[in-house]
Amino acid sequence: MADSRFFKCNGPFKAHELADIASAELVGDKDALITDVASIDQATSEQVSFLDNRKYVKAFTKSKAGLCLVHPEVADKAPEGMSLLVTAEPYMGYAKIASTFYPVTFPKAKISERANISETATIADGVIIEAGAYVGENVIIGKGTWIKSNAVLGDGVTVGENCIIHPNVTLSHTIISNGVTIHPGCQIGQDGFGFASGAQGHVRIPQLGRVLIGDHVNIGAATTIDRGAGPDTVIGAGTQIDNIVQIGHNVQIGMGCVIVSHVGISGSTKLGNFVVVGGQAGVAGHLEIGDSVVIAAKAGVMRNVEAGQTVGGFPAIPQWKWLRQVGMIEKLTRGKK
Amino acid sequence: MADSRFFKCNGPFKAHELADIASAELVGDKDALITDVASIDQATSEQVSFLDNRKYVKAFTKSKAGLCLVHPEVADKAPEGMSLLVTAEPYMGYAKIASTFYPVTFPKAKISERANISETATIADGVIIEAGAYVGENVIIGKGTWIKSNAVLGDGVTVGENCIIHPNVTLSHTIISNGVTIHPGCQIGQDGFGFASGAQGHVRIPQLGRVLIGDHVNIGAATTIDRGAGPDTVIGAGTQIDNIVQIGHNVQIGMGCVIVSHVGISGSTKLGNFVVVGGQAGVAGHLEIGDSVVIAAKAGVMRNVEAGQTVGGFPAIPQWKWLRQVGMIEKLTRGKK
Amino acid sequence: MADSRFFKCNGPFKAHELADIASAELVGDKDALITDVASIDQATSEQVSFLDNRKYVKAFTKSKAGLCLVHPEVADKAPEGMSLLVTAEPYMGYAKIASTFYPVTFPKAKISERANISETATIADGVIIEAGAYVGENVIIGKGTWIKSNAVLGDGVTVGENCIIHPNVTLSHTIISNGVTIHPGCQIGQDGFGFASGAQGHVRIPQLGRVLIGDHVNIGAATTIDRGAGPDTVIGAGTQIDNIVQIGHNVQIGMGCVIVSHVGISGSTKLGNFVVVGGQAGVAGHLEIGDSVVIAAKAGVMRNVEAGQTVGGFPAIPQWKWLRQVGMIEKLTRGKK
Q1: Is residue B161, in this structure, part of any structural domain at all?
Q2: Closest CB to A300 among B261, B297, B337
Q3: Gene Ontology cellular component (chains A, B, C) (predicted)?
Q4: Taking residues A11-33, what's their average pLDDT?
């Protein structure tokens, strides 16, 4: 059971309700009462779990979970007495079921007296603004959005509906759509790193663009996104960005991308849709990365990458080639001391 | 036109005024009225643009910009009807012209009642301190400086004139000169990562130095700069530091350096003047990096580097050698499967 | 002498007192009065220094320090007139002596009226809470702990005794033990990066665990630690984490580890005790890293590492092998242009 100091469990639910939520086929008692989610090895007869990885099949055969999400191919390995929710996507089913037991719950609408809110701000119904938050001139905040303590929304910023802006975030020059979550300590909309260099030193170029964030984007803690120099910096709908990521000015990121922590995307580079960028990778500027590209962890991408490719290494090349190089280098040094 | 929610355009200006600002030679109507800046492909007849990169010469020949900064060598390619500002430094000229159309404008002096300011702080004329900012004991803030919401200036910190300290910055044990910008979420002056390790665990060494930041330094978002252990950590005048950079204790950085995002400079390393460090590079501790060195992106510098060298790879070697190694490794694995 | 705007020197002390503190053998006048610490090359006759590195033996022979911590093996190189504190661990001795001259001093207990503190919070004696700090529902803060300006403690968070939570930190879903320091701008306890991906996009998995931080842990600036997905994310006692580190969900870190800046530890990986991870290294998920492993800077660890091993490179291999590979690659390209 999740720590009740931090999590409130919304169960119980009947097995058939969970089958509907997960779009899964129920094999077992439809009225069985399920009180919570749990992992395969921890779950009891009143809890629901999931099997998503062949590595855990053995644990699955010994599991005491009363109900379990499984792929059709492994359903026959279920232990005696376990009811099943059979689905081709057990992990997705688990995401939906766990979100039903533990939904993100917003507090009641409330504007703290100790928030610092400009008179020119427009705040819709159902908005929560906590003490210490700062809301600048002409800011617009949409229905149901939650601005947490000590977040700072600079002049003119717009935030859509049902967003969560966590503490210690700074937003400036930014327009955010609906259902967006910005995790704590993010810094979004500041100057891009642009300057002209000459005998008199480095002279900053005014960055005259904005940051545009699409629906249902989720941005990790302490991530930084610079506004555009004239074009905008754009994050497409549904994209998931992890912690400590840097997005440079004028970058355009498509829909449904996944960008893991410590990644840097240099200025003016364009990512298509559903691109995955592994942890600590870097992408040089002014590049085009096609749809569904996978960039391996720690890669250094210096050239355009065509749609559907998987690249790795530095300079990044097709991943299979990089693995060959690694193998070749190992052979060359094998046995020598 | 830049989004007027965020940017206020200070035009129009006459062509000859812009020629003066950019120190460029005007070819065309000196009284032509220019209302805004724009990119080569977007600009209209009342806007000024610039050509800085041979890649865009084609777009230049078709551009509708009324006025354009160009290098003498490409001036002859200008389309009919376009006036020119001819200069050997078109990008620098653009920086100055764009800054004239869109200057950084400070608000009127104002100390918010909802800032938390120690009575022992000394605050000069023209200072702006926003709600939620914290100003500790004996802090000194110079003329015209702007402390934004929720920034925290610890006891004894000194900030010079005409600085901007963005939201959610923490400064401690730090002395800042004039004209410095610290972007949101920077953490400056905290303990360096110093400790003695033994049977009883890790015992922290008191870090008895400070951070000294020179005139016109610009530090990116969520960058961290540790104070010195006894010596100071020093950032030289005019240096530009990007986001998510880590500067370790006792590091000395010269003047006019450029440090790109995700770089780590380990403790006690010394960079000369005009050093450029590419994104995600790392420099080991106790090293000396000479003037005008260029460290390529993702490099790992383990030895001193002499002035004027360009190094790359890990361990870092002269960049041309690293490129040779990359080529050699590619040859070795070519055609094999 | 350390800058008195920032540091208060608690001396003087007699030589024999310092010998006790450092568990060192005094050779010289036991009543000599020592006023401060200093480096070997700067110290005067009333100051104590230390020699820890053969590189500085020459400076040691010319040093004017009145008292110096030295290893027995180099004691005979001491200049005329210098008293010695002879110990096998001169750096540890210096840590303790410097901490005696410059202890971390907490202010008097005080709860600022301008802190935002929930009525349901439980705050022990001796606690300091500065203006702008936010303390959520049912938070528990132990004796003597110092919550600095603009830090945010989310609902249910527990902090032990004698901790320091620096400005602009966000804590949520976190339980902290005693004597812990969290440096400015840390973000701890937010959602782990977990989601199921399918035709409808990425659906976040509720992260139902917490972050547990052991006694005397020290976490650097702008570091991010995600809470667990159901298990907890755990940081063992005495571990030292540098700036801009990312710790993924469900990670378990043992006791006394050292994690240098820009490191990323991916989800569900387990580090034993006394593991050292060099700057900018990355460790893939679901791995086991044994006790006392050393991971070199910039390494990319893709497999389990047995206790006591030193690994480097990407993919990480035994460090001696990686050095061989570096040498081999250099030979292959030597002399070619």
Answers
A1: no
A2: B297
A3: membrane
A4: 96
* Residue numbers of A between 6 and 35 with CB closer than 8 Å to C: 6-7
Instruction: Identify whether residues C302 and C178 lie together within a single domain.
Output: yes
- Catalytic pick among A173, A216, A249, A262: A249
Residues 6+ positions from C174 with CB-CB distance below 8 Å: C154, C157, C158, C188, C189, C210, C211, C212, C213, C227
Instruction: Report the residue from B152, B206, B244 with minimal CB separation from C149.
Output: B152
Residue B32: domain span: 13-101
Same domain for B202 and B310?
Answer: yes
Q: Nearest Cα to C203, choosing from A75, A238, B259, B182?
A: A238
A110, part of any domain: no
Q: Which of C154, C246, C325 sits opposite A243 (nearest CB)?
A: C246
Predicted confidence pLDDT, tens digits, chain C (337 residues): 899 999 999 999 999 999 999 999 999 999 999 999 999 999 999 999 999 988 889 999 999 999 999 999 999 999 999 999 999 999 999 999 999 999 999 999 999 999 999 999 999 999 999 999 999 999 999 999 999 999 999 999 999 999 999 999 999 999 999 999 999 999 999 998 999 999 889 999 999 999 999 999 999 999 999 999 999 999 999 999 999 999 999 999 999 999 999 999 999 999 999 999 999 999 999 999 999 999 999 999 999 999 999 999 999 999 999 999 999 999 988 865 5
Say if C64 falls within a structural domain: yes
Is the Cβ pair C206, A258 closer than 8 Å? no
> What CA–CA distance (Å, rounded) separates B138 from C120?
34
- What is residue A324's DSSP assignment? H
Give a yes or no: residue A333 inside a domain. Answer: no
Contacts of C284 in chain A (CB under 8 A): 297
Taking CA atoms, C54 is separated from A272, B69, B205, B258, C61, in Å, by 55, 58, 20, 34, 12
Residues of chain A neighbouring B281 (CB-CB closer than 8 A): none
Asked if ipTM goes beyond 0.95, one says: yes
Best B112, B120, B130, B170 residue to mutate vs chain C (most C CBs within 10 Å)? B170
Q: C201 and C316 share a domain?
A: yes
Q: What is the DSSP letter of C76?
A: G
Nearest residue on chain B to C167, alpha-carbon basis: B170
Q: How many structural domains compose chain A?
A: 2
Q: Are C149 and C133 spatial neighbours (Cβ–Cβ below 8 Å)?
A: yes
Residues B187, B314, single domain; the answer is yes
Closest C-alpha among C143, C171, C145 to residue C157: C171
If asked whether residues C293 and C193 sit together in one domain, one would say yes
C174 and C311: one domain? yes
Are the beta carbons of B5 and A206 separated by less than 8 Å? no
Distance from C57 to chain B by nearest Cα, in Å?
Answer: 17
Q: Are residues C183 and C317 in the same domain?
A: yes
Both B316 and B180 in one domain: the answer is yes
B312 interface with C at CB cutoff 8 Å: no
User: Between B and C, how many residue pairs show a Cβ–Cβ distance under 8 A?
Assistant: 175
Q: What are phi and psi of C22, to 5 degrees?
A: -90, 0
C289: tokens are 């890293």
The rounded radius of gyration (Å) of the Cα atoms in chain C is 24
Q: Point out the domain boundary residue: A48, A78, A101.
A: A101
Q: Do B262 and A246 touch (CB under 8 A)?
A: yes
The CATH number of whichever domain residue B70 belongs to comes to 3.40.1390.10
Query: What CATH number is given to the structural domain containing A230?
Result: 2.160.10.10
Q: Do C329 and B329 touch (CB under 8 A)?
A: yes
